[in-house]
Amino acid sequence: MSSAAPWQALDPAPSLWQATAAPLRDLPPLQGDAQADVVIIGAGYTGLSAAHHLAQSGLRPIVLEANRPGWGASGRNGGVITAKFRISFPAIAAAYGRDMARRMYDIALEATDIVSELVDEFGIENAALTRSGQVKAAHNHETLNYAVTEAQWLKAELGDTTMSVLSADQVREETGSDGFVGGVLNAGSGGIHPLNYLHGLASGVIKRGIAIHAETPALRLRREGSGVLVETPGGTVRARQAIIATNSYSDLTQATAAFRTTLIPFRSAIIATDTLSPNLAASVMPTRRTYTETKRMMRWFRMVDDRVIFGGRGAFGKQDSPAAFRALHKAMTGIFPQLSEVPLAYRWSGLVAMTLDSVPHVGRLDDRVLFAMGYNGAGVAMSSLMGRYLAAYARGEAPDVGLLDAARMRRVPFYPLREPAVRMVAGWYQFLDAIGR
Fold first, then answer.
1. Whole-angstrom Cα distance, residue 215 to residue 222?
2. With b meaning 16 or more CB within 10 Å and e meaning fewer, what string describes 203-213?
3. Nearest CA to 41 among 236, 261, 263, 230?
4. Taking CA atoms, which of 169, 248, 298, 437 is between 20 and 30 Å from 266?
5. Do 234 and 31 form a contact (C-beta atoms < 8 A)?
6. Residues of the chain under the 50 pLDDT cut
7. pTM
């Protein structure tokens, strides 16, 4: 039985991103005592974006990372840039009104735009950002009708011009697969090398004089005088305010453990093939967009450097799951039979933070502590944006964040039962997908 602390957990299985990322300079752990205007716990997209926007405001941030930048979700995700929430915009309008749907739509667009802004700001060319669009490929006519209805609603109610309906033939041309009955193209979405993006953000904020301390878990966070005190293994940080940016990895230390009961961690697994032959690469996803399917246990796929990357929900437990990887491979070859003999080069996974209301949340925990988390599987763009909003809150502003308001975040009832409940729901979804419902 390992006696390692949670933040000293084994590294995840090597990913394609780790194998191809430009190296990040060594970031020494904190030694001694430090002071800052804002101490940020977590050096993922949220934390680094917050550090950047705080520094732009003239505030002095310091960033603490329990492992190294990119160890968590920011380095393990699929690199898909999309303007959406897990709850649809028509559903938001039905529940909260058209004005709220409009605000949430604007936030979603702002999230995709800020990724482009940050890539340009820091010159992160190796992030390989594309905005070539995403195809939602429907596996049956019921889900196709739902996707088409949503696209038509967005155009009629919110003036969206980015969505277009695709026939079965067009989706076949897009994907190289016969497995879909049609789909919808969202022209504003795209893809990115997520770890190069993360490393570029880290390098950029370091060059601007912001300290990032790796291997520096925040062991305790408490109020002290008119500010906060964060204790780490090698020292302390005193600051006026603290930002929690740990998302699904909020259970690593007691400093952020209070957020565990507001999130439902769901393991997302990804596989990547060997490099395809030129002829095969030309036949699979030839338009090089990103793609999702419409099954309940949604799968997504994209091409990167002539490799197929294929990911989805359904992995359980705290470590990589061979069964989940086998299920992903079966799903991939079901969509792309031509890949059945292509070896897999990489298998890895990470945690997605789900919330009860299907949207992330940002704002104040109290007068000294702020947070943003709960990205529900669409976090690359949204977490980058949350850093901007966190900086606004730290300056004393009250940005309009719509349904993302921190006060709306609810605790998970019967929290100890969350894992069996997730397994039960996911198993039911897998059964419905298997019978074509």
1. 20
2. bbbbeeebbbb
3. 230
4. 437
5. yes
6. 1-2, 316, 424-433, 435
7. 0.93
